[in-house]
Amino acid sequence: MIPISPSDVCFAVQDRFALAFRVLGGCLLLLALMYAPAARAADYELGPMDKVTVRVVEWQTAEGTFREWPTITGDYRVGPSGTLSLPFAGEIEAGGKTTSDIAKEIAKNLRQKLGLVDLPEASVEISEFRPIFVSGDVQTPGKYAFEPEMTVLKAVSLAGGMPRSAGQRFERDYFNARGDYDVIVAQHDRLVVKLARLQAELANAQEIKVPDDLIQKSEAKRLIADEVAIMQSRKSALDLQLNGLNELKTLYTNEISSLEKKMDVQNRQMDLTRKELKSIGGLADQGLVVNSRVMGLQTSVADMEGKLLDLDTASLRAKQEINKSTQNETDLQNERKAELANEIQATQAALDESNLKLQMNKNLMTEALVNAPAAAGQTNNSDVAMQYSIVRTSKGKTEEVSAEEGTTLLPGDVVKVKIDMERS
């Protein structure tokens, strides 16, 4: 039987610890990427004034853990020349590239400049898009923050709508209130579907029930589909984490089983050695056996007892890790429930606020119609003499195209608004 040293056992356990932490670390990184903000579109190309959040982590083989790099991790804004300036990684060309491209280049630069053996893990998220600009015949021309799904009508509403005059005040009031109302209705519908999704997640439901308020709306299917995709992604991420913990427990369970077998073998060897020592003990006293043999057997017994203690210690440590993994699994599920409860509370508060805003805008529209009944007809493009165009820069080229109220904007767009005085 080949004796097993404590160092062999320790190296085996360390290798398995490293494998387990890599699995768990990969799950955590995948979760972070899944929960990235919606603004981080995979095909969106960065440009000047975009703000990104950079995170860099490195696997520490000796410690068996991931370590975040606080010196590099943080928020950065793309400069006028289209570059990002990061510590150690240096100047990186960001203009016209996606966040995935930037993350790969950051990791590559860090590895080259710092002489790292392994490629560090880097992630880049868009935390703030570059703004849009509204110019022309609006109440407040200027720069405004961009939001996903922003349209020309929303941008004009942010800019205060058409400029006011004494004879047009109530018509403008109605137009502005109507624009705000449409924006809030869209936000309200998204919040209703989000609340339904959160409640389904908390109840571990497989489907999202269509809210009664949206059954008759054409956008309901699209909104539900978007929330279903989010729910499935979050569930997959949670399952990956739980599976990682289960694999970790299985790894430790197998380790304990292996250690117990080794302990059994070691006990049998020690019993045989003790019997042999006992059988020649009397002969040694009579001088029939040399004392060196007796001492050798006694030394073997002592070594075996030490190895048994090492194996027993390793087994206890593995059992502790199993208990720790079980506790982590419970904590993960409890934290998930608490997070869902907080999100439900926040979404419900936002929904209540949107209901108040809807009612306020209804009252404003009613007041405007009382003073100017003809204002209702001016919300149609055929009656309101408004002309829209978008000035957009793409791949270094700037062009101006005509637009409608529902035209979707991109970050950096300039919305030009003009009132046709002859038609109005």
Automatic annotation (TrEMBL):
<feature type="coiled-coil region">
    <location>
        <begin position="242"/>
        <end position="276"/>
    </location>
</feature>
<feature type="coiled-coil region">
    <location>
        <begin position="323"/>
        <end position="357"/>
    </location>
</feature>
<keyword id="KW-0175">Coiled coil</keyword>
<keyword id="KW-0732">Signal</keyword>
<dbReference type="InterPro" id="IPR058781">
    <property type="entry name" value="HH_AprE-like"/>
</dbReference>
<dbReference type="Pfam" id="PF02563">
    <property type="entry name" value="Poly_export"/>
</dbReference>
<feature type="domain" description="AprE-like long alpha-helical hairpin">
    <location>
        <begin position="178"/>
        <end position="359"/>
    </location>
</feature>
<dbReference type="GO" id="GO:0015159">
    <property type="term" value="F:polysaccharide transmembrane transporter activity"/>
</dbReference>
<dbReference type="Pfam" id="PF25994">
    <property type="entry name" value="HH_AprE"/>
</dbReference>
<dbReference type="InterPro" id="IPR049712">
    <property type="entry name" value="Poly_export"/>
</dbReference>
<dbReference type="InterPro" id="IPR003715">
    <property type="entry name" value="Poly_export_N"/>
</dbReference>
<dbReference type="InterPro" id="IPR019554">
    <property type="entry name" value="Soluble_ligand-bd"/>
</dbReference>
<feature type="domain" description="Polysaccharide export protein N-terminal">
    <location>
        <begin position="40"/>
        <end position="126"/>
    </location>
</feature>
<feature type="domain" description="Soluble ligand binding">
    <location>
        <begin position="132"/>
        <end position="167"/>
    </location>
</feature>
<protein>
    <submittedName>
        <fullName>Sugar ABC transporter substrate-binding protein</fullName>
    </submittedName>
</protein>
<dbReference type="Pfam" id="PF10531">
    <property type="entry name" value="SLBB"/>
</dbReference>
